[in-house]
Design goal:
The complex is a heterodimer of chains A (584) and B (603).
Chain A (H helix, E strand, L loop, with lengths): L3 E6 L2 E6 L4 H7 L23 E4 L5 E3 L10 E3 L3 H16 L15 H8 L19 E2 L5 E4 L8 H9 L6 E3 L6 E3 L16 H5 L5 E3 L3 H8 L5 E6 L20 H11 L3 E4 H21 L6 E2 L4 H10 L13 H17 L6 E7 L3 H6 L5 E2 L2 E2 L3 E4 H10 L21 H4 L6 H15 L16 E8 L2 E9 L1 H13 L6 E5 L16 H6 L2 H15 L9 H11 L5 H7 L12
Parallel strand pairs in A: 1-5, 11-12, 11-14, 13-20, 14-17, 19-20
Antiparallel strand pairs in A: 1-2, 3-4, 3-5, 6-7, 7-10, 8-9, 15-16, 18-19
Chain B lengths: L4 E6 L5 H17 L6 E6 L11 E4 L3 E3 L7 H11 L24 H4 L17 H6 L4 H9 L2 H11 L11 H10 L6 E6 L8 H8 L1 H15 L3 E7 L3 H16 L15 E7 L8 H8 L23 E5 H13 L1 H6 L8 E8 L5 E6 L4 H8 L9 E6 L5 E4 L9 H6 L8 E6 L4 H15 L5 H18 L5 H17 L3 H6 L1 H9 L1 H9 L15 E2 L8 H5 L5 E2 L7 E2 L9 H5 L5 E2 L11
Parallel strand pairs in B: 1-2, 5-6, 5-8, 6-7, 9-13
Antiparallel strand pairs in B: 1-3, 3-4, 9-10, 11-12, 11-13, 14-17, 15-16
Helix pairs in contact in B: 5-9, 5-12, 6-7, 6-9, 8-9, 8-10, 9-12, 16-17, 16-20, 17-18, 18-20
Classes of the chains: A alpha/beta (584), B alpha/beta (603).
Chain lengths: 584, 603
């Protein structure tokens, strides 16, 4: 515990640890200092100049996010001068902002709009006869993300998030002064700039300047197309976060209401990506056993996270042969929907609109990969993020909180506890271990592998399986990936199996999940709260190992024959290729 | 054996275009006459008298030739060097008071100056370390390394009262002390040579004319704060300075004045050069460090200050070129000597780059406390063409305008701030009755808008809005409320910007609004530019003193001027494009752009 110092804020005496900033000290007594660019631990550059306070005995105004507390300090967080400064700076920002709030993905989570409301900001600088707005630059050719500079307040949070969380530097300020805009260097499009679409920038953005590509209209049209049957899959971690969009506390499981809402939207068939998560474990598990026992390339890397796959293909193409050939659960489900399921239901696959609800931005791009379709149609036609689903539900006026929970039915909706934890870092590894150990040992093995759980960037464990030591590692977040691969190259340790996730925390903290305000990001570890939902589901399911899923047994019996069969390879496995960026 | 004659050719920024050719012409003559052993010829640093360059200085006798062209070389050589008869016709004369020929030391321009930072500029060959050493170079370093502890170095510097010459005026000794007290194995010394104020070139003059003085000072600083590495961050637009610095570094290393075990004292110090890419904001120390680190040149929040967490996160001391150039003399002659020059709170001298409507544009160094009037009228030679003085702008885009009634203020850091301006890096632009002060404010603001890095809200968004308002006013489209918005914007930008660039960006507007509000009002209410500068509001008219010489009509590119010989001419305003060609050729100054109300009667 660090030393306490005493100070006075707005006349209130307070004792806080000496490493606190004035902002944090004020937060601790419920005084809310306005802020726009501050994102704890990620962006602390004090460049928005909105968190200004006056400190007795000091000249001028100071930014409270960067000023450390001192013994005896007397702080004023609001007075006429401070108020004028904040109002005017907000007014300046508003003058350059293109207000399209009705179609903005941040319609009710916009930190900028909140501040404009709080200060009842005048909008004189948007008078076009007197002032010229800045030039708008759109970066919208990628399949996953859009940068719209007309919404950007140039806080720089996205830039820092890309650097610190992803270990990349895709975004930066371009030009300077009033012509500054955020984007990849030299006017490049995002898809040419080495971006992995993890969406950490979106989660950091206080406005809607960086958004996932909006596909709501695409779905709305399909729902109104009488020839289309809309079949929807839902990823494991949607249910752990969707509730936040409807006022539930972070870490509430809303699985039943989620399915009910999808039904209300007019979705024809609902399946659960959890089912193909179980299938992934069977296919990937057998691939691993094959590599382990027949001298294949080790370590084997997981392949479910498209952010990670992008990272690998762009930055470490020489490691491609390490990655499992299994498609991600989304693409396995897509392939099955348009083959097995279509056949079973007697629908022409051409008439199926395959929809996927994902916590992820990279999934949007994954669905468009050339490999993922057949006979001229895509396996997954449309990917919506958790946020898009929530907006659609809200816009349709569906009373989410009042919905009666339902369970989906059908062959592709049953799942085990192993599948449910896919959404948390370490979940894929744990699920795989549950199955692989049992197969290799030929007897029942334990369910829990707690060593691979938790939020450390890199987790390692060694298990003895059938007399052999198996070294596993779990890595999440771009920065962690970078660090681990560097470490892997410099160590003599032979890893056998490594789980990689493009997002820190795994899918539960994916780039498509509900936005958590900067203040709440500082207050809670969202990753832990959402992960707990998944581990609770796991603990309460009847079957907790993928190979025990009765529906999995059925599909192999009816359709896929056996794990890694020819048919399975055709539908459930894929290939990867080296990708370049900033090529002229 | 000493040479019979020394010929120094000014190689300052302005003169360097021709100085090489002049040197070659002299050399050709010298070798033709086989007197290589008698006459030495050297291109040296800036003499300072830039308006009249290029210059040649011939010793003995310190004869100063000004405005030399290549054609003059033969005559000077044949008469002065061969026959020892100075060519009086070409010698520098006090430019406007037609003084008798004088040698350099007696010239008013130089007589009132006190050259500390510029002590070697125009005197030594900057390419030769021996010439620097001959002028007591590196003696201060030796003295410091063997006679002073680092703490004593800092104490001595604190006693001298030296304040940062880059703009802020922070006490240098205190700055060194902070860096020295910061704990850390690795520390850095940075020389800020990213000179960027429009019109200022004193740092360039020092670096090109006396590079070793900076190297010596940086080494002393390294010893004082405990740093082993120094960086000189210099703009890439100064290739000559870069070249000379590189040469100076290699020379100093060769003879053990830089590098490992300097002068066998056991102290190691090395200096590297980093080139800036031309962003003005990189002259701000934290942006400068970001740029050296390879990041985008944007200022960082302070605290932490560079002395605690600077370059690569290590304690760092940043001083500008002129500050460093002052260091060796302080340790040679002692802090008492330095303190005896200048004023109580601002000791020593300051280099100014004098420009604008002034007779002697150029570089000068005067003791602090010299009045503005002395600088402008005595050294600067006053305003040419009998025009009326209007204001002097100091401190570049961060400074403000000072008017007639404050001209007797002694120049020092605090007085200039009290006048609503600042010392800045020492740019001094003189303005006369023909300068429109709204346009002046607009010029500086345009510069800031262009050079704002875009990091913080008020500077990025606010300065652009201010400029838009000023543009409107200059076009005659302003309204009186604009002045309130300008003042409000100016205040908020000043109060809440992140770095010095933004905090001072509104000074040119605030000070012109304060002193020349009537000019703003004339633009808004009368739709007129009193100085006849803002083209949207001006009209070219021919006055009664026209002699009918027809020059204007002949030079008008659109045939807008008509009139008979020896009769007053007329301008057709429907055709006039306001190019100004007529005004510039009129021999009797009969063409005016000023509205009648503000026109001064012509004699």
């Amino acid at each position: 515990m660090s030393k306490l110092v005493n100070l006075t804020i707005d006349g209130i005496k307070v004792s806080v640890p000496e490493d606190y900033t004035v902002m944090k000290a004020a937060d601790s007594i419920g005084i809310s200092i306005p802020r726009l660019c501050f994102l704890k631990g990620i962006h602390e550059e004090s460049n928005c100049r909105l968190c200004i306070v006056q400190i007795e005995g000091e000249k001028g105004l100071k930014t409270s996010c960067s000023t450390k507390v001192r013994e005896g300090m007397v702080v004023q967080t609001d007075n006429k001068e401070i108020y004028e400064n904040i109002c005017f700076n907000l007014e300046l920002l508003a003058g350059n902002h293109k207000f399209e709030c009705w179609k903005c993905s941040r319609e009710n989570s916009c930190e900028f709009l909140d501040l404009l409301r709080r200060y009842n900001v005048d909008n004189d600088f948007s008078n076009l006869e007197l002032f010229k707005p800045k030039e708008i630059k759109m970066n919208k050719t990628s399949d996953a993300m859009v940068i719209d500079t007309s919404k950007c307040v140039l806080c720089g949070r996205c830039i820092s998030a890309c650097e610190k969380l992803s270990g990349l530097g895709i975004l930066n300020f371009n030009h300077r002064g009033s012509e500054t805009y955020v984007g990849p260097a030299l006017f490049h499009n995002l898809e040419d700039a080495g971006c992995i679409y993890c969406g950490k920038c979106i989660q950091a953005c206080p406005t809607g300047a960086i958004q996932a590509k909006d596909d709501i209209k695409f779905l709305e049209r399909a729902l109104r197309d009488s020839e289309k049957i809309v079949i929807c899959q839902v990823a494991p971690s949607i249910r752990a976060a969707l509730g936040e969009e409807f006022g539930y506390p972070i870490g509430t499981n809303v699985e039943g209401q989620m399915f009910a809402a999808l039904k209300k939207l007019g979705i024809n068939e609902i399946i659960d990506t959890n089912f193909t998560a179980d299938l992934t474990i069977i296919e990937e598990g057998h691939e691993f056993i094959n590599r382990l026992t027949n001298g294949g390339k080790l370590p084997m890397f997981t392949s479910c996270s498209p952010g990670w796959v992008n990272y690998l293909e762009i930055y470490y193409p020489e490691l491609i042969e390490h990655v499992s050939s299994c498609k991600s659960p989304q693409q396995m489900a897509g392939a099955l929907i348009k083959t097995y399921y279509a056949e079973k239901m007697g629908i022409d696959p051409k008439n199926i609109f395959s929809l996927s609800i994902m916590p992820c931005v990279a999934k949007k791009a994954e669905a468009t990969r050339e490999e993922f379709g057949r006979d001229g149609y895509r396996d997954v036609d449309c990917v919506l993020t958790t946020r898009e689903l929530a907006r659609l539900i809200r816009h349709r006026g569906i009373p989410f909180r009042e919905l009666k929970p339902i369970k989906p039915y059908g062959d592709l909706a049953e799942y085990t506890g192993a599948a449910s934890i896919f959404g948390a870092t370490g979940g894929v590894m744990e699920a795989a271990l549950r199955t692989v150990t049992e197969i290799l040992e030929g007897k029942s093995t334990p369910v829990d592998f707690k060593e691979v759980r938790g939020l450390d960037d890199i987790k390692e464990a060694t298990y003895t399986v059938a007399g052999q030591e198996v070294n596993v590692a779990v890595v999440h977040g771009g920065a962690g990936i970078k660090a681990f691969i560097k470490h892997m190259r410099n160590t003599d340790k032979q890893y056998h199996f490594v789980e990689f996730m493009g997002c820190t925390g795994g899918c539960i903290n994916g780039g498509g999940q509900p936005i958590v305000s900067s203040i709440n990001q500082e207050k809670y570890d969202v990753r832990a709260l959402r992960a707990k939902v998944l581990y609770d589901i796991d603990a309460n399911t009847e079957f907790r190992k993928s190979h025990k899923n009765p529906a999995i047994k059925t599909i192999y019996d009816e359709f896929l024959e056996k794990p890694n069969s020819h048919k399975a390879h055709e539908l459930l496995h894929t290939t990867y290729h080296k990708r370049t960026f900033y090529e002229v | 054996m000493l040479d019979r004659m020394h010929v120094l050719i000014c190689g300052g920024p302005d003169c360097s275009n021709t100085s090489g050719a002049i040197r070659d012409a002299f050399k050709a003559n010298i070798s033709k006459n086989h007197i290589e052993k008698e006459v030495s010829i050297v291109i040296t640093g800036c003499f300072g008298l830039c308006a009249l360059g290029p210059h040649i200085l011939i010793y003995p006798g310190e004869y100063l030739y000004s405005g030399i062209s290549l054609d003059d070389v033969d005559e000077i050589f044949n008469e002065h060097i061969m026959k020892n008869k100075p060519v009086e016709r070409m010698l520098y004369r006090g430019s406007f008071n037609r003084m008798k020929l004088k040698n350099r030391a007696e010239l008013t321009y130089f007589a009132q100056q006190e050259r500390i930072a510029l002590r070697n500029c125009g005197t030594i060959n900057p390419l030769d370390i021996e010439e620097y050493i001959a002028r007591d170079g590196y003696i201060a370093l030796g003295k410091v390394l063997f006679k002073y502890t680092p703490t004593q170095v800092i104490e001595e510097l604190k006693k001298s009262g030296l304040r940062g010459r880059g703009g802020g005026g922070f006490p240098t000794g205190l700055k060194w002390e902070f860096a020295a007290k910061s704990e850390g194995e690795e520390k850095y010394v940075i020389c800020n040579a990213d000179e960027g104020d429009p019109g200022a070139f004193m740092d360039r003059a020092v670096l090109e004319g006396d590079p070793h003085s900076v190297l010596e000072a940086m080494t002393i600083c390294g010893y004082a704060i405990g740093a082993k590495t120094g960086y000189i961050y210099i703009r890439a637009e100064y290739p000559v300075a870069v070249e000379r610095l590189e040469l100076a570094i290699s020379q100093a290393k060769k003879i053990g004045l830089l590098g490992k075990n300097i002068l066998e004292s056991g102290f190691d110090f090395d200096i590297e050069i980093r080139l800036g890419a031309g962003a003005f904001v990189c002259g701000e120390e934290t942006a400068l460090m970001a740029s050296i680190e390879g990041e985008r040149g944007m200022p960082r929040k302070k605290p932490p200050f560079p002395a605690v967490k600077g370059l690569f996160g290590k304690p760092t001391n940043v001083n500008n070129v002129e500050t460093f150039a002052n260091i060796p003399p302080i340790f040679l002659k002692g802090s008492d000597w330095f303190k005896s020059i200048g004023t109580e709170k601002s000791s020593g001298t300051k280099v100014f780059a004098l420009g604008g409507k002034i007779a002697n544009t150029g570089l000068l160094e005067v003791p602090m406390g010299t009045t503005l009037r002395e600088v402008i009228y005595d050294i600067g030679g006053g305003i040419p063409n009998n025009k009326k003085f209007k204001a002097v702008q100091t401190g570049g885009p961060s400074g403000g305008c000072i008017t007639e009634e404050s001209l007797d203020t002694p120049i020092d850091f605090d007085n200039l701030i009290a006048l609503g301006s600042m010392m800045g890096s020492g740019g001094m632009i003189v303005m006369d009755e023909d300068n429109c002060m709204v346009d002046v404010a607009r010029f500086y603001l345009e510069f800031t808008v262009d050079e704002s890095c875009g990091k913080c809200t008020p500077c990025r968004e606010g300065t652009r809005r201010m400029l838009e308002i000023l543009n409107r006013i200059c076009e005659g489209k302003g309204n009186m409320d604009d002045l309130n918005v300008l003042e409000r914007l100016a205040r908020i930008i000043k109060n809440s910007s992140l770095c010095g660039l933004g905090q001072t960006a509104s000074n040119p507007v605030l000070s012109t609004l304060k002193h020349f509000r009537d000019e703003y009002i004339a633009h808004i209410k009368d739709k007129a530019c009193p100085a006849g500068v803002c083209s949207a509001l001006t009209k070219y008219v021919i006055l009664d003193n026209c002699i009918g010489c027809t020059k204007c009509a002949k030079n008008c590119p659109v045939g807008a001027i008509t009139g008979n010989v020896k009769e007053k001419h007329k301008i057709n305003h429907k055709l006039c494009t306001k190019c100004g060609a007529c005004k510039s050729v009129c021999p009797v100054d009969a063409i005016s752009t000023k509205p009648e109300k503000w026109r001064t009667a012509h004699v």
